[in-house]
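Morning!

This is the sequence you dropped in the shared folder:
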Amino acid sequence: MKKISLLGSTGSIGVNTLDVVERNPESFQVLAMSAGSNVDLFAEQVRKFKPKVASLFDTKKIATLKERVADLDVEIIPGEEGSIAVATLSEADVVVSGVVGSAGLVPAMEALRAGKNLALANKETLVIAGELVLKEAEKTNSQIIPIDSEHSAIFQALNGEKKERIKKIILTASGGPFRTFSLDQMENVRVKDALNHPNWEMGAKITIDSSTMMNKGLEYIEAKWLFGVDTPVEIIVHAQSIIHSMIEFVDTSIMAQLGIPDMRVPIAYALTHPDRFECGLPSLDFAAMGDLTFEAPDFVRFPCLQLAIDAMEMGQTMPAILNAANEIAVQAFLDELIPYKDIAELIRMVMHNHRPSPLNDLQDVLNADRWARQETTKLITVTH
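The structure's back. Tokens below.
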């Protein structure tokens, strides 16, 4: 039985991970779990899965959590200290990181320092500190298994292959809800429009990122770190989200991973790797599927994609700046403080105002992250 520590249990990755566990109680046990602030759902999860350790980041709600699980034998640890305790629990075989945003970096690093294998859905960890994260994993001989459907697809397509035989990686993108929108139409996008993804059920932040194609930009950076910074990465829009990504090898052969657009599939693979098991989900029906289409991304209508590629090329602290500015801008849009089109413009302005510097340690990442958040917030206040 594989023993799991789960970071971010109340988010979409966490909920889907627990669904996989619940379907396979003979294969998995959740020993520790953490959440941000959703105390109602978290208390229900703790009661159902009965972990040894539970952590809620929002310290103001700890008393409520303790009250709701008072009859259980569970150690409750608040704040970042609790997230780290979950990430480093000695008995855990694998740590699943489903935390949204840069908040996932510190517990992920601590998991690797503790020698844990890391099933990583939190792409921001690699986006903002890829070099440091990979060095830590190499130092402790820990494995990073990607959960993002695209990177899981590449990871699977590489089975038995040599990385040096890769000609290029082809990342597929759904194009989000505004794939066919004109620039004029995108001027009037509302929050509820942007949260209406045609293929995937995800949390609010990643759904907005998908609509701006920033999500694909972050995945571009993540792919560079996971599969080689010198490996060419091409992005192609594939509206049906059936082919999750592809690799072209030096002999022009292309390996693709196909599957239903359901995050439980890559989660189950990450938990069972290098094995596979039956997960009780529907198979692809090729006859009913119809056409699979492909088109080049439009960098004019989706400027966030180019901003992410530029940030990776600039390197050093710039990806951390990009990510932090995006997190603040997306939240401002969700709070209806800024119009949709200003998400990209705010990120561009913050990147313009920043001079990249080397990342020598985790503190350099955190300092860059903090500066970008303050700068983005200031720009929102001044311009809106």
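Headline: The chain has a mean pLDDT of 95.

More detail when I'm at my desk.
O.
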